Amino acid sequence: MTTLIYSGVLPAGAKHFVLESAPVAKIEFPLAYTLIVPASQTMMTRWLELPGTSSRTFTLPSDVGVAATPASTSAVPNARPTGEDVSPFALAVARRIETTGQYLRLGFLHILPRGADHILFVLGLFFLGLHWRPLLSQTTAFTIAHTTTLGLSAYGIVSLPSRIVEPLIAVSIAFVALENIWRPRLSAARLAIVFGFGLLHGLGFASSLQEVPLPRDQFFTALLAFNFGVDFGQLAIIALAFLTVGWFRNQSWYRSRIVIPCCVLIAAVGVFWAVQRVFT
Question: Where does the pLDDT of residue 75 fall: very low under 50, low under 70, confident under 90, or very high at 90 and above?
Answer without folding.
Answer: very low
